[in-house]
Amino acid sequence: MIRKLHSTIAASAFALFAAVGTAEAATTVKFWHTFSKTNGEALNKIIASFEAAHPDIHVEAEFVGNYNDLVAKLQAGIPARRTPDAVILEITRYGLFANNNVLTDLTPYFAADPLKDDLYDYAREIGVINGKNYVVPFNSSTPVLYVNKDIFARAGLSADTPLKTFDDVLKAAKTIQDKLGAEGISGIGAPGQFARWGLVMSNDSELIDPKTNKILLDKPNTIEAYQWMASLVSQHKVASPDGVTDEDKGNAMFMAGKVGIDMDSTGSYGGRKKALGDNLLVRPMPCNKVCSVPIGGAGIGIMASSPKEVQDAAYTFVSYAASPEANAAWFAATGYLPINKKSAALPVAVKALESQPGIDVAINSLPYAHGRARATFVTWMRTTEYKVWQSIALGQRKADEALKDFAEQTRKESQRTGN
Amino acid sequence: MLRKLTPYFFVAPLMIFIAVFTYVPILTSLNLSVRQWNFLTPDMPFVGLHNYEELFASAEFWNSLKVTVLFAVLSVPLRLGAALFIASRLIRETLSSRLLRGAFFLPSVTSTVSIAVVFSWVFATDYGMVNAILHLVGLGRPQWLQDPYLALWVLIIVNTWRQLGYDIVIYIAGLQAIPQELYDAAAVDGGQRFHVFRRVTLPLVMPTTYFLLIIAVIEAFQVFTIVNVMTRGGPAGATDMLVNLLYEIGFELFDIGRGSALAVILFVLLVGLALLKSRIIGSKVHYEA
């Protein structure tokens, strides 16, 4: 009996040590990301399928908040040497890290990876600064215009109501506000920063020239676009001021069925579809003077401080995340754009295109989608823009005055950071 | 020898703790405040007082200082006045008093982030509970978090609500320490309720008030979470208090030198205020009846 017990204990101990040995043999890749709820669930599935295919690599994923939070935490973590190995970085803000040699130059990895031929040109381009690859695209997006079909119908608007120009959008928003405002329904959501950038582009302007990094915040067409956006809140009162001081609140109210029109990233399609079901209608962004939308989203970069074997493991994961299988699953679950040419043909993507009307709107806008500036000072500009927008939208400052000051400050910051 | 060293061994852990978590960060901030750094570069060039000059020349700093002082001036008397009034009502050891003390104290132990998120919805203009009630009785929909004046008042209300329980508990302890015979003597002399409060309670509760005043002013100058979650310093800087500005400069604009300079200014300001309070009010505080 005692002998049997000893054998059992010995066998258990051996099994335990063997398990520990196996676990130690796996390379762990710490990965910080910005996806929660619907998008977070989709990412976790991709990680699970990656780990099943690569048992020698363990991805320790951590949700660290939105893009701003992530940049702040990463920056604070660098001197404390508490950084991840791989990190999601928004495409206009990774320049800060690339230019300070914090990110690994992925050019050699990318050159040897067949993935490079599978990516769409727009997706490949967003990972490049000064000819070097610093991030591999993962979640690419453009803004789109979301409509609540039920609210439209109750306001007497058809699903085909023109929403091409600023005037068209304002007219529809006013109709909703007039007819349903008493029920606590707003005509339109105050545009978030990504949508604001898109509306400036559709007014034939830019915030910063992506090729020359010239600051265009005080260009007449930029000012005009901001004036129009602000008028939705302060003059026409078709957008709630709640969305001006808190963008998340604006999004939440659309998903709660309290807003008729809302402009946001195609990456929020999954969550909105879940919330509104068949009442969700997706339309392209307005083409006020021209058709032009910004490409947004993020890519995955690898920290230069990580050991070489961890960087190799991290790249294996990064490459997998952009593979046709992972990208098709990501597209179908979230609405983010396909970045891999082969993903659209896979059954999961085909099914999504057939069964989820509107998921292709962002894809169709790709011919007029453009990359944005990613110089170091863009991070500063985007952080400061929130205050400027609030002051204009809440009627505290005139758009031309506020944007001229803002442009001057941004030029100074650009000089200070050497861009 | 060992006998002489023994007391030092006992205080050593605390001294090390204070040194590591208080003095080292203060000295590090002082050092960083005269350098230019963004967390990323290995070099931290010495820039002298440039960061301080930039701060003193910026409108944001002066706006922030003004807003913080206004917040302290409005919120501290409100907090202490309300706490003293409620404490004087809850001083008796009855079941209802105990229950109410617990209810008032609850926000002090609740997560500040949760409180801020809930109140940001409560005070939302179009979808908030407060405006739903006001609208029902025909009082319109004030833009609580978008109007520069109202937004500051909302923060004062929420902060007072959160801190009130702690102040009440301290005041109750202070009120219970006042000898009953003084009240009996005042009653014999025919003292009216208000006069007893003014001549007996108020002077004898002064040490507690002085303590709470110091704590409340420091907290008012360091308020951050409620501001950052509810308004992020907006609308357009109307609630951008010093610590929120410090966070913005340091962790959103990544100018660690300027952020540290602001931290040093805040430190000097708080030390100066504490000394001033000790000079003006400290001499009027009596610790014995």
Automatic annotation (TrEMBL), chain A:
**InterPro entries on file:** Bact_solute-bd_prot1, SBP
User: Which SUPFAM superfamilies does UniProt cross-reference here?
Assistant: Periplasmic binding protein-like II
Q: Which Gene3D superfamilies match?
A: Periplasmic binding protein-like II
An example of a Gene Ontology cellular component annotation for this protein is:
periplasmic space
Locations listed in the record: Periplasm
The residues the entry assigns to the signal sequence are 1-25
Alphabetically list the UniProt keywords: Periplasm, Signal
Keyword Signal, does the record have it?
Answer: yes
**Which Pfam families does the entry link to?**
SBP_bac_8
Top-level taxon of origin: Bacteria
Q: Does the keyword Amino-acid biosynthesis apply?
A: no
Q: What's this protein's family per the entry?
A: Belongs to the bacterial solute-binding protein 1 family.
Its protein name is: ABC transporter substrate-binding protein
UniProtKB/TrEMBL annotation, chain B:
Q: Which domain of life is it from?
A: Bacteria
| Gene Ontology CC, one term | plasma membrane
Q: Which InterPro entries match?
A: ABC_transporter_permease (IPR051393), MetI-like (IPR000515), MetI-like_sf (IPR035906)
UniProt xrefs under Gene3D superfamilies:
MetI-like
Q: Which Pfam families match?
A: BPD_transp_1
Secretion signal: which residues? none
State where the protein is found: Cell membrane
**Entry keyword Transmembrane:** yes
Membrane topology recorded in Swiss-Prot or TrEMBL: Multi-pass membrane protein
| Biological processes per GO annotation | transmembrane transport
The record's listing under SUPFAM superfamilies reads: MetI-like
Q: Tell me which residues make up the ABC transmembrane type-1 domain.
A: 61-277
Chain ranges passing through the membrane = 7-26, 69-91, 103-124, 144-161, 202-224, 256-276
Give the keywords, sorted.
Cell membrane, Membrane, Transmembrane, Transmembrane helix, Transport
Q: What is this protein called?
A: Sugar ABC transporter permease
Taxonomic path: Bacteria, Pseudomonadati, Pseudomonadota, Alphaproteobacteria, Hyphomicrobiales
